[in-house]
Amino acid sequence: MNVNRIGRVAVVIVLVLAGAGPGCDDASPAATSPTGRASSTTVLPSSRGPKPSLVPPASKDSDVQREVRAAFVDYQTVLRNKDGAAAAARLDAGTIEAYRGYIIQAQHLKRPELDALGLVALVNVLRLRHELSPDELARATATEIFARSVREGWTSDRALLDAKVGRISVHGDRANISPAKTPFSPAFYFKREDDGWRYDLIEGQKRLGATLGSLMGASGEKDRLTFAAQLIAKASAKQPFDPSHLEGPPPGMPAPPPGSEALLAPEKDEGHGHAHGEGHDHGGAPPPPRPRAHGHDDDHDHAHD
To answer: pTM, whole model, 2 decimals?
Structure first.
């Protein structure tokens, strides 16, 4: 496998666990540096022709866009402070539930079931086995593990901290932020819950799956587990990666909780690019047209033809 390519994409992989989203460095072709900081109007090359498109300033935000921007700034701040507990508290319920699933899979799956996972889930599961001792894995909870990943720097958060908002789109209880450099490519996602807007890491992960499949194909590595292990070994400060993690969990894991049958017998991902529930990267097919209900669909398009 191309070692240089592993080095370039390892940071993207490591983002999967700490929630910085898919936009990182040059390894992700579609997501680049969003931010929640207020930005002045910036002229960018248009993606639809030679004329410039304008990225609107924060002063042009609607009320709901201001809420989303504030939620992103807040999330940026806690990551900058490496406040893991605060970062975990700002995740949406779906992200927490997904991490709970990764922990159960890390505690129980053997090689055949691991090989059925999509690449994003596979990296999450193997990363948990790699970073945690058997006792820590046996006692792990979703919020504690996410908080630890932030505190201990399992990720590079440069893409979040150095970025600029290009476009804020709101559709009902869902919102996304596109980076200023690519203002029509959503990279960070939010969901409105009872207590406000929460960061939806899993929605971003869906768009990473196909990218990882493409990178694996370009690398020449045929075994998905080996590919994931090499990426984790390159990205992690903990060395070496124990190959026994690919065969099964350590002994002494707790019994799986009721209702986890689907997690323990994942459906085979025949395409090996991304599993069910993982989407396409930003270079894939465009999303379906979005309805524009009054008061529920706010976009910072501002492109000039």
So the answer is: 0.76
